[in-house]
Specification:
Elements (H helix, E strand, L loop, with lengths): L2 H9 L18 E14 L5 E9 L8 E6 L13 H18 L11 H8 L6 E9 L9 E8 L38
Antiparallel strand pairs: 1-2, 1-4, 2-3, 4-5
Length: 191
């Protein structure tokens, strides 16, 4: 894709007079095959602490586009207002649904805190799942739309076995510049 094509696509819905160049590109509402990049405990300098989920779209029109969502399990907001129990329950159900889609069963100990939840997901980083994403406008902060998720299991891609003979240098270690027994001459050097 040329620079002109990328600029045309990027600037299609961008208003340089009003929009921030730092606004993240969110995926539109839809179903996506995604790869789980990570589930991790995050803390910011401002004191916010919670769980972050990151996925990458694995096929289709938006292949390579990443989606992030962060949330916490706090019972009060930063200004002291109580967070509805239904909101926290929604976050817990989302984690349980993602775990199920990844093929893991969370145990009681996994719910100890954000660190234990993220540790439970470590073995499944790279697993593919189906993500059903619903995006709604946030009138107060348009750069942060409301996002609702649902996750389902999907068939995993076939693992590819790579042998030494499949690599560019094959089994000829004398040509492999990184092999322990590499033999190079001045003629092999690019400069």
């Amino acid at each position: 894709m040329s620079l002109r094509d990328m600029a045309t696509k990027t600037l299609q819905n961008f208003d340089a007079e009003k929009d921030s160049p730092n606004t993240p590109q969110t995926l539109p509402t839809g179903k996506y095959l995604v790869t789980l990049d990570n589930v991790e405990h995050r803390a910011t300098d401002s004191g916010w602490e919670g769980l972050s989920i990151a996925v990458t779209v694995a096929d289709g029109k938006y292949v390579g586009r990443r989606d992030f969502n962060s949330f916490n399990f706090e019972t009060t907001s930063k200004n002291g207002k109580p967070i509805p129990e239904s909101v926290i329950a929604g976050h817990i159900k989302l984690i349980a649904k993602l775990a199920n889609a990844c093929g893991i069963e969370l145990q009681d100990d996994d719910w100890e805190d954000e660190d234990s939840i993220s540790e439970a997901f470590m073995p499944v980083h790279g697993v593919q799942v189906l993500m059903d994403l619903s995006v709604k406008e946030n009138k107060k902060n348009p750069q942060y739309p409301y996002k609702n998720y649902d996750f389902e299991k999907t068939e995993q891609p076939e693992e590819v076995e790579v042998k030494d003979s499949d690599l560019p240098f094959g089994e000829d270690d004398k040509k492999d510049p990184f092999a322990d027994n590499a033999q190079s001459t001045d003629n092999d050097m690019p400069f």
